[in-house]
Amino acid sequence: MISVKSERAKKLLENGKAYQTSKNSLMRKCPLEGFDLYIGVELETGHVKNLSFFGQLQDYERVLIEALSILAQKRPLASLDQISLRECEAFLRDKNSEIAIENLDPEFESKWKRLLQWLKLSQQTNPVLDYQFNRDKGPFSRLSLVDKVRELKAFLASKEVESLYKGYLRPELIDLDEMTAFVQAPYETEQEKSLFEELHSLGVRVFSEEDLNFIPEP
Fold it and tell me: Buried b vs exposed e over 39-50: b needs ≥16 C-beta within 10 Å?
C-alpha cells in the first residue's frame, strides 16, 4: 500500500493551496490513462505563475502535484517537464531525509513523465496547418531525402495529426532511412500504441505509399 509518511507531506496534503474543491476556467481534463484529473496553469511572460488542480486522486498523487505546483512557480513553461518525480518526493521529505512516500510503484515515474509532457503541451499554442501531399511532385518514394524529410515534417505538424494526438506530445521525425521513418512519439500504454498505428495508417493514406514504415522512438 502506498502511504504518505513525512510530516511535511501530511501538512501539505491538509493545507495545500493548489488543490481545489471544483474545477476552474483554467483547468483542462487530463486525457492520460490512470489520471482522473483536471489541471490548470496560469502563465506570466512564459513562466508558471500558478498551478491548480482538481480530481479524484489518491493522497500520494495529490501531495506530489501539490509539490509540483510549488516547484513549478517562476519556472519557464518550456522546462516544466523537467521537474522529476524524485525532485518532488525529495521536496516532501522531513529534515531527517527519510522517504516521504512509502511503497511508490516504480512504474509511476513513467506515468509522471507523461503527465508533465501533456501539461507542458496543453499550454503551448503552436500553429497547425492543413496538409496535402502535392502529387505533382511525383511519388513520395522517388523524392530526394531532403524533400521526404520536409514533407514528413509538414505532415506531422498538420491539423490531422494534431487532432489525432490531442492531449499528447505531438510526434516528431527523428530520422529517415529511405521509406522508414523513425518517429518520436508516446508509445508505452496500449492507447498510445493504438494511436501510433493510426498515425502510420494515416501516413500511408496521405502519401499513397504502402511501403512507408513508421518506427516508434519513445
Answer: bbbeeeeeebee
CB 187 within 8 A of CB 193: yes
Half-sphere exposure of 26 (CA within 13 A, CB side): 16
Q: What is the mean pLDDT of residues 100-121?
A: 88
* Residue carrying C-alpha cell 530520422: 175
Domain(s) of CATH 3.90.1010.10: residues in the chain = 3-122
Q: 3-122 sits in which CATH class?
A: alpha beta
Q: Which residues, 6+ apart, have CB-to-CB distance to 83 below 8 Å?
A: 68, 71, 72, 75, 116
Centre a 10 Å sphere on the Cβ of residue 157 and count the other Cβ atoms it contains. 18
Specify the pTM.
0.65
Confidence (pLDDT) at 124? 65
